[in-house]
Specification:
Nucleotidyltransferase, domain 5; alpha/beta; single chain
Length: about 290
């Protein structure tokens, strides 16, 4: 059994220095399927690295910490101190509550309405200032303990929190009610609709087949009183041309495209060949407080 994991995708600028990690921000997106992290140089105000690792498909979140140890064996600087460390925790055990209705003492009650109880987990929440909401979710105790062991200054957020906030920031005064944002994950997708610079709709949908996928997408469009002929669908995440999911979108949605990179951020030339929609939320986490 190998005691290390090698990245299946790696972009590291020649300016990166292991001795300078205290001047960098590491943003990490993690799930049962793997992780990807980006490195942002605060001094140069530029992204200088990105690596992605696969876990295969773990059957329990408590097994993630061992995978982090294996990556550390491959990349000793992986767990060095960073100026900022942002964790985007990706699972489906979350629920949104409007800020005006939120009572921290009732967070377990809110989550229990929509999600099953998770053993060996704790309940935490993110404040979403632009969405005027709080995002409550389960996070595995072993994961949070390992993250705090490696990076004591870690700022932990749910993936959907950053997904929502980054779009509200980047598309302020630059979208209409017919625009939908779709993020494809492994066997699920997130869907967002913004109206009047506010979060109008967010949900995550599990699916097994391409038919499931398009059914949930078209049903959501109908429930939003929109028409597949009129919506503008901006796509991001693990979607590529040639996938059966992409083909279903092509068949049923007239206006769709991949989201473009945030031009307000700067990138090393090594990012030139990286499709910006693949890690859009991860990259934009640096601007979400």
């Amino acid at each position: 059994m190998s005691l290390r994991i090698k990245p299946y995708f790696s972009l590291i600028d020649k300016s990166f220095r292991e001795s300078q990690t205290k001047n960098y921000t590491m943003s990490m997106q993690i799930s049962l399927y793997g992780l990807v992290f980006s490195i942002f140089s605060e001094d140069r105000n530029k992204f200088i690295g990105l690596e992605a690792y696969s876990f295969g498909k773990l059957d329990d979140e408590s097994k993630i910490p061992f995978q982090l140890d294996l990556i550390l064996n491959e990349r000793p600087w992986f767990a060095y101190p960073y100026k900022r460390f942002i964790l985007l925790y990706q699972n489906r055990y979350n629920t949104l509550i409007p800020k005006v209705l939120f009572d921290e003492t009732k967070k377990s009650l809110y989550l229990g309405f929509n999600q099953p109880f998770r053993e060996n987990s704790r309940i935490i929440f993110d404040e979403l200032p632009n969405a005027l909401a709080n995002n409550i979710y389960y996070i595995s105790n072993p994961v949070i303990e390992k993250v705090k062991e490696f990076w004591p200054n870690a700022k932990i957020k749910h993936f959907s929190s950053v997904f929502i906030e980054s779009l509200l920031i980047n598309f302020k005064n630059n979208t209409d009610e017919k625009t939908l944002f779709l993020n494809l994950r492994e066997n699920s997708f997130d869907l967002i609709n913004l109206r009047d610079n506010k979060l109008h709709f967010y949900n995550n949908f599990d699916f097994r087949t391409k038919e499931d996928f398009i059914y949930f997408l078209l049903t959501a469009i109908e429930n939003l009183n929109l028409n597949p002929e009129d919506v503008k669908l901006l796509m991001m995440g693990e979607i590529k041309k040639g996938m059966n999911i992409y083909d279903m979108i092509y068949q049923y949605i007239r206006d769709f495209s991949f989201i473009q990179k945030n031009e307000n951020l700067q990138y090393s030339f090594i990012f030139d060949d990286l499709k910006p929609h693949l890690y859009y939320t991860l990259i934009n986490s640096v601007q979400c407080e």
